Each structure stands twice: as structure tokens, then as C-alpha cells.
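Before surveying the methods themselves, let us examine one representative protein, pairing a chain with its fold in C-alpha cell form.
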Amino acid sequence: MPAASPSLNSFNAGEFSPLMMGQTNFEKWSSGVKSMLNFIPRSQGPAERRAGTYFVSEIKYSGDKVWLAKFEFNTTQAFILEFGPYYIRFYSDHGVALNSSGGVLEVLSPYSSDDLTNDDGGFGLSMVQSGDVIYICCHTGDIAPYKLSRNSNTDWTLAAFDYAGALGPFDSTNSKRSQTVYTDQFRIWSSDGAARPDGTPTTTSLCTITSNTAIFESGHVGGLFYIEASTDKVDDDTGHNGYIPSWAAGTTETFSPGVFCRSDGKYYESMDGTKTGSTQPDWTAGAHQDGYTLWRYSNGGWGVIQITSVTSSTVAVGKILQELPPSVRNTTGKTFKYAFGDWSPKQGFPTKVAFYKNRLVFASRGKLWFSVASDYENFTPMADGYEVQDDDAINVQIEADSTNTIQWLAPGSSLLIGTAGAEHSCSPSTTTSAFGPKNIQITKESAYGSTGVNSVQVGATSMFVQRAGCKVRAVQADYESGSYSSSDLTVLAEHITRAGVVDMAWQQEPDYVLWVVLSDGSLVAMTYNDEQKVTAWHRHDVDGDVEAVSCIPDPNGIRDDLWLVVKRTINGVTKRYVEFLHAAWDAASESFAQA
């Protein structure tokens, strides 16, 4: 029989699994290879030898594992962030970023080694960027969110997110009428001698919160406390419960200034103490007359306190952040309507963060917390003070067969939510009204489950690591069915990721490549072009253990640079270096593409 030498004109199916060796009738068989090392298959068919890595700097402490993240303001202003134990360093323009004094640009952080690496071996921080600000959450749930801000290229600051100033979110309101609380309000003068512009000293409004049951713990300090007026007119063994009467038109008897009334769910304080007129109060700011009496808008029937100390299990002291309803400001004004803030050392803090529908989204413990629309740091439940509006903050629990840790968030036409046991989508329940507290639905899309490796956004596709850690899946919207479908991207090369995925980064230019770090220090990658039906895996050896990857545009903006942390042994000593993958040789110009 004569020898046959069939032509091989494409390698864009990449390396095949040994399990595929007998599948000669597979349509991509002629485009696959048994082994592909240090080559990058292109969508057009050829496989090009990749270039080497370029040394940038040793990390701060080579004995510590670090992670990489990106800050990308635009294609010409991009930074790589080195997250090490209790610090962040910066890289740009293929070098170490410097501060205004010429030293290494660095900021201190609250994150230890355990905070930086989660139980699945992935990066323990979740981040999202808005302009010059990055919001950061830690996987442990023990650290409040932080904000990393770029003031200039040489000046960055890291500060705790002011969740008290966000005036929310809150846990479920107590519904047991037998459990009541009341407050005793007082003021203190400024202890540091501070004064207002007119010279008068400042004061801080505080209150004591007293409960008839044991509800307070030391972990509540720093957290918020929501208290709502009860409209029940009930007498108990202590006397009147602080009930505030409704406004009535045309009263004939006078009353003293400082008396309160309820009107249309809102509370008003009499400023001059006269008879009532005929115009029912409905304003939500300032003081206006009802025809006779001048009524000041007080609040919408609820207030917010930040707990500053816990005296006992039934008594706490707090700073008043939003004016309290008049009925709860005294020892007889009891109410059962109260709630603790959802974020505190006791309750825990968010572990994931993203943006969706022009809202900042935090997640943890099976809950999603959306900010007020277009007001990213406002989580008050009722921005107007008295009733829920379409653009108010959203607090929603994911209904699931079992409580599963939220592993990643991926925004798109819907907000995709990956948990340890399933994948969900969050979106408006109807398209006829705005996304808001009354127009939201969460749908379970699949049940593959995920590890704690952050998802990667590739166009309209979200890529995540399946629960066992060895498969990379792609989630895409199926517009015909109105749901989402998920496909296994490792099915043709399941052997490549067998060690377990711990980090991923997407390089869009010049090739569509997903770079993947494995738990054994291996670097592998997948050329992915869904338009051309290209999914090609390839392996890479950099003569060291790769521990983290990230991508940002190169200084010229013509390609994306892959940055790596590589652990190497130099003269018998372990070193960890920050490096980037050099551009390939351009035969047409006889130069490196990025030179």
C-alpha cells in the first residue's frame, strides 16, 4: 500500500485529550494535535511560537505568595496591582510604578495571606472598578469592603467603605410583637473642641437602645440598627406606648410646640403650637403651614442608629444617623419593628462585588444587596424617607435548595450568580418597568456549581470553573428560550486542566486567549473565538511555577500584555518575579510586535 501524507493546514483545534485519539471521524480531528507546547493557535488556522517573558521586578517579599489584579482606566492608563500580605504595589509602562518622591508606589492594606487566598486556592478578593475607584471585598466575610482610589498616577489611597454612611442594608424586620425596643435620646458636646463656622460647638446625637429581650452582642458594634415607629395604640403595664395621633383638620384646642402628628405615613413636629388648619401635611422637607400650624417634616416613621457600644445583651448605645420617630424617643415608646444592619462584625460583610443596571452590587450569605440607582454608596431602603421607590436599594435572598456560598458575579443582560451548587440569573421580572425592589426575579439556570476562582468576562460570555476545579465552563444567553446555557470548554482537552484551576485572565489582543494557572504551577491557555467556533488548548513552560496572571493593554494600546508572577529557583534560593509576556516576532517588520 502506498504511503499517504495528508496535508495539515490548520492547528486551531489545539491539543487533544488522549481520550480523543480514536475519534478520527470527529470534524476537528485534522486541526488538532497530540501535544502543543509554547505555541499559540490562531483563529485563522496557524499555530505561532510564543515569545518569552520579560523580567520586571522581584516582588516585595519573595517568600510570600502574591496575586495580580488590574486597573484599567483606558487603553493608555492601565496598572497591574500586586496584592501581597498587608500591601499593594503597582506596575505600569512595563515597569514598577513610582510615587511622587521616586520610591516604589505602595499602599498598606488589611489583607493577610489567608485573606488573599481562598479555600479553593483562588484569589480571595473580589473587585469591580468605576472610574478611578476600585471596590474590594474579601472572601472571609470578616473584613468590611474597601475602596482603592487613584488620586493621581503617583498617589493612591485605600480606605474602608463607609457602610454606616450608606444607611443600609438591613436584615429582616422583627415580627414578634412580644419583643420590643425603645430609645432614650441625648446629646454630647464635641470632645475635640470642634466648632461650626458660626463658632458654636458641635454636638453628636446619641441614644440608648433598650430591649426587653437579649438581642445585643459585642459584634454588633459598628453595625447599623433600624427602628420603626409602631402605629398600634396599645396600653401595657408601663402606661402609654408612645402612640402618635394622626393629623386632623380644624381642631379647636391649642397645643404646645414640639407636639408630633402622623400624616400620610410621615411624621411632623409642631413649631408654633396653634390650632390645625385645613391643608393636610404631605411635604417631605422643611416646615410649612397647614393653614394655622407650622409643621416641620421629621421623618418617614423610621430612623437609623450606628451602634457604638454594647452595655449588656439588652442595652446598647448608638449614634443617631437618621432622625428617630418621636414615638420611640422615650422609655414608654416601645416598638417591635426593628432590624440589625446586614453588615457588621456579627453579621459578616460582603464577599463579592459587581455592577448591574447602574447599581453597585454586594453579595454574601446567599443575599444580594443593590445600591440606590446611580448612587453607588447609598443602600438606604427608602431614599425619600417614607416609601419604597423604583430606584431605591434592593435587598434580596437567593432561594435555593440549600445554602450555597456565592462564588462569583458576572453582569450582562442579567446578573449571573455562581454558587457552590448552582448558577442563577437575576433580572427584572418584567421589561415594562424599571429594575427595582418591586421588579426583580432570580432564576436558577443550571446546577454545575463553581469553585472560588473569579469568573472572567469574554464579550457576552462568562467563564467560570466548575465545582471540582478541573473544568472551565462558558455561560451564554439563549435568546430563543429566554434562558442561559452552559458548555464545557475543556471537553476536548480535559487532561490539560486536571491539576485544578486557580487563576484566569483574558487576553483579547492580538489573539483571543484565556490564560489559566493550575495549582501545580503550570501555565496553560485556550484560544477562544466563539464566532469562528475555535476552542483550542495549549500548554506553556516558562521554566518556573506560575502563580498568578492578569492582563492590561500595553503602553502603546495595540495589544494586551499578559503579566505573571513566576516562582523560580535562583542559585538555590526561591524568588518570585513579576514578568510580562513579550510580543511575538513580527516577520513582516522583522521586529517584535510591541517594540
